[in-house]
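quick one, 270 residues, struct below
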Amino acid sequence: MAIYAIGDIQGCYYSFLDLLKKIKFKRGRDQLWLVGDLVNRGNGSLEILRWCYKNKSSVTAVLGNHDLHALAIKYKVIEPDDEDTLSRLLKAKDSDLLFKWLRSLPLVHYEKKHLMVHAGVMPQWTIKDALKFSKEVSTQLRSKKYIEFLSSIYGNKPDKWSSTLNKNDKARIIINATTRLRALSSDGAIDFTYKGELKNMPKKLKAWFDFPKRKTKDNVIIFGHWSALGLVTRGDIFSIDTGCVWGRALTAVRLDDKSVFSVKANSKDT
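---
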């Protein structure tokens, strides 16, 4: 059995199939770890979720910001954006089933000394903290009041972590960190504006994974979200969003030996 972590798919169904062919994926033998942003921007969101649901015994996935965005649209918390490509998914006969499965996904997954998250973790968090906070959010998303909860998660404040935050503020920063985080200011506040390359980052900012005294630095963290960062493979992190939806590539990392597999974005996906 092999475990392959795959970067942001974002509805790029044909690129996903190309990548599965390249890694010679075999259902029942191999496992796929998907770093979130399964849907939106590409035109195959419906096909991706159907594939994942059908093969859910082989899939471990976490929620990304686009997945939460799709949930909020589905349950009429927000209106779609002009750039959204979710209409076929929303109108599909199995839409309710697929969104219920999407809503069941956690924010982080930890196994075999690897933590998978869509964007990042706050430097104050341990692995145990990240799992605890993910469970707290998942409990709300799976509850009968999930629509009310989805309505409370929007906003950029608070932008600093504190264990004394109230329930709604705590959930909001947990979600923002795990699905939107790229950089932090020197005082530990999330910066929501910078999306560029690491080499061009303003000096006042630090990538979340390079922030001083990060408590998860002795663990391997697999994440996506930051397409401008591209593929980064080093001892403590694997950044694997290689911008498939922007016409670049879709990438997988085999956890056993850290081998990297990539396919060019398939033109059918955009």
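The longest helix spans residues 127-141.
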